[in-house]
Amino acid sequence: MIPAILLMLGIGATCGIVLSLSSKIFYVYEDPRIAQVENNLAGANCGGCGYAGCSAAAEAVVAGKEPPTVCIINSKEGVEAVSRIMGVDAGAAEAPLSYNLCEGGNRAENKYHYMGVSSCKAMTAVFGGHRVCTVGCIGLGDCVKACQFDALHMGPDGYPVVDDAKCVGCGACQKACPKDIIQVKTLSEKLMEFNQEHGALAPCSQTCPAEINIPKYISEIKAGKYDEAVQTIRMRNPLLLSCGRVCPHPCEDMCRRGIEDEPVSINQLKRFVADYEMNSGSRIPITCAPDTGKKVAVIGGGPAGLSCAYFLRRIGHQVDIFDAMPKLGGIIRYGIPEYRLPKKVLDWEIQGILDLGINAFTQVKFGVDFGLSSLIASGYHAIFMGIGAWNDYALGIEGEDLDGCYKGIDWLSRFAGGQEMKLGKTAAIVGGGNSAIDCVRTLKRLGLEKVYIVYRRTRNEMPANEVEIVASEHEGIDFVFLAAPTRVIGDENGKVKGLEYLQMELGEPDASGRRRPVPIEGSETVLDVDMVISAISQAPDPSFKDTDPTPKIKDLELTRWNTIDNNPETLQSSIPYIFTGGDSATGPSLVVTAIGGGRRAARSIDLFLKGKPVEPVENSLQGKNIPESIFKKVDGITPIKRAKMPEIPVSERLDSMIEVDLVLPEDQALAEADRCLNCCRICYNPDTEFPIAK
Amino acid sequence: MGDLFVLAISCIFINNILLAQFLGNCPFLGTSKKMETAVGMAMAVIFVLVMAGMITWIVDLYLLKALNVEFLRTVSFILVIASLVQFVEMFLKKSIPGLYAGLGIFLPLITTNCAVMGVCLINIKEEYTFIQALVSSFAYAVGFGLALILFAGVRERVILARVPKALQDTSIGLITAGMIALVFTVFRGMV
């Protein structure tokens, strides 16, 4: 008995001594901060940070490889304690959340027979994971099984639904998903996502220049969740009230229902929820990421500038907008007349953006009141130039400087700015674009007897929005097609008394695919008018290059159309810290294109501010369509009439600038939302069941 | 030499520690879901088992047998093996950081691995010489690794099979282990 006890004591003592000695001999210096940091991590060993346990994560923090926010489930106090130990600022701890890209699980079930396989991983390994399409959710819930926090559940439609309140953003679901559909992203990352070739995108979303998730917001309208629909649109487009009114909706041209039926009235639905928010009397709160401490100057408060400022602010940067005009809005305030976009609506919309904490300085012109050097001296880290395209092209014909001759945007902006305009009795507006239509419809409202549109091609080639052309026809505008102005005729006092034009005929198609008008010799005709407005496109005003005293501004390269030369994928100009977007980058284009450009520039600016290389989005779609998602025919469609846009009768609208187009009533909006097939890349919800090849 | 070879073969295949003796089942099921972890575990077991086999043989001969307290074998082996693993961990961390980085997280797991304990006790029970004990420890460990890696390979594929709901995950794992064990019975009577 005694020897046994002694032996055990002996072995114990020996082991103890050997271990304590060896811990001295084999002592490896470890930063004492590692243990301290580890004590302040969550201690769950969950691996959410990507390291093997908390001690490994602590080592990475002390080694400076990870920020104090490495632990994804750590409390605020914990992060602060770690920051104190490391002696650094905690920085922005933006909570990542899991979200599901695919919402088509319900459709997959009836198209695919599962043959007993019960995990997504197996499905992917055995059959390549095709259910309906290559990118969609398989719906067997590997992610749900992987979630340790009970934040993921299989929803009623057969695809996983994330409970944002429980999700800690650990990324286990993302790892478990073999299709990369469940993704863990921060708000900033979601705001800065762009359409990619492999994306789960409906044809409408592919086409939208602002890349709005259209099926998602329409299905939210369908479910009566108008607030969520507004938020979905705001992820991509901050100017939904304006776009809902003036967007020519290229998305609707690609609507899959439009192949067999009339397309869904996507833009009216956007307007419906946008107006719903405005009329509800309260603003839906917009969340922003924590401050990054970086400052960006946005020159130009038009759609591109507002969009860029909005997205930069939402991802946590400080933004100041500078605008030459008395009020923000740019071309959508000064170029689009009141009857299309009431100023009250625009004011409300812009105020919502400024309320995020954006400062606006108006009536300051770049190159005159401030310049590049003053911006840099004021501590701005990057500059966005969205100066628009405000210089009207001249017709280049005789008599263009007579009294009574005006230029489109110049005239519209002066009128919108409240200037007293001298009016004649009859007017000819040269051009076939939206500006020309805006001029004629405004003039008609100002009481002119006769208003002509003089366009050198035919109605089919007019670049203006179809609805605008139809509206001006209703309002009694006279169209003079196939007419090329040759001379403005003045009277003895130097006032306009007529516009001479040559009649044309259509010849061979040109580079744009439109048939080229060819003049008919000797067909000069005179139109008796006392006002001529030329609205034949515009270019950016490059005068800042001469007036800005900063020598560096000479490095800013312009194209031969005076647009700011830029990389179309990143919108970075020839000066690395200057980015551009909107009309000043593309030449005159759509509001929604400028909004998309503003967001793309915001992404590049964000990369630039973080010191990362400003690289394009990989496999960026940029408005192209994914071939497999463009169908020739669509099965299972029952034609249903598209909602008709309500508008004020012509008799009531011509004597004022009152808004012409009205918002859809709720019941019609819901019916219209029901017409949406909720498409994705290749699947959709048909109206009727149709036989599926098994 | 021939005897040692026969001993090794019998330890690896015929008396495989996992599939014939059914020792060390916790890591067998726990670390066999992924090939990567299975390989790491196998390497760590080989390393520790060889060390433990030698030390315990010496402890048994010069302490337990000498003092005639063989009844303390189990408890003293636990103490010795646990201390050994701790020691090895410290040693590796200092001297061979590369190896430590590879085996580090598996070493503490082996402290309580019954396959290690079992092999040490078998070595004593079969009255092996030191060389024989060394060979058997190494061979048993190789057998452990072999079974674990085979099993991990099978398990990685099992998810592709149509497994009834009630038998998913660990259940099918145990069934698979049983089948592999059955297959290993063909080695019976080879030596």
TrEMBL record, chain A:
Species: Desulfobacter latus
Family that this chain belongs to: Belongs to the 4Fe4S bacterial-type ferredoxin family. RnfB subfamily.
InterPro entries given in the database record: 4Fe-4S_dom, 4Fe4S_Fe-S-bd, 4Fe4S_Fe_S_CS, DPD_II, Elect_transpt_cplx_RnfB/RsxB, FAD/NAD-bd_sf, FAD/NAD-binding_dom, Helical_ferredxn
Positions that bind [4Fe-4S] cluster 2: 133, 137, 143, 177
Positions with a binding annotation for [4Fe-4S] cluster 1: 46, 49, 54, 71
Segments of this protein annotated with the region Hydrophobic: 1-23
EC number: 7.-.-.-
ATP-binding is among the record's keywords: no
Positions contributing to [4Fe-4S] cluster 3 binding: 147, 167, 170, 173
Intracellular or extracellular location(s): Cell membrane
Domain of life per record: Bacteria
Cofactor comment: Binds 3 [4Fe-4S] clusters.
Statement: the UniProt record of this protein carries the keyword Repeat: yes
GO terms for cellular component: plasma membrane
MF GO annotations: 4 iron, 4 sulfur cluster binding; electron transfer activity; metal ion binding; oxidoreductase activity
SUPFAM superfamilies: 4Fe-4S ferredoxins, alpha-helical ferredoxin, Nucleotide-binding domain
Name listed for the protein in its UniProt record: Ion-translocating oxidoreductase complex subunit B
TrEMBL record, chain B:
Keyword annotations: Cell membrane, Electron transport, Membrane, Translocase, Transmembrane, Transmembrane helix, Transport
E.C. code: 7.-.-.-
InterPro entries assigned: Ion_transpt_RnfA/RsxA, NqrDE/RnfAE, NqrDE/RnfAE_oxidrdctase
A GO biological-process term: electron transport chain
Pfam families: Rnf-Nqr
Compartment(s) where it occurs, according to its Swiss-Prot or TrEMBL record: Cell membrane; Endomembrane system
Protein name: Ion-translocating oxidoreductase complex subunit A
Organism field: Desulfobacter latus
Gene name for this UniProt entry: rnfA
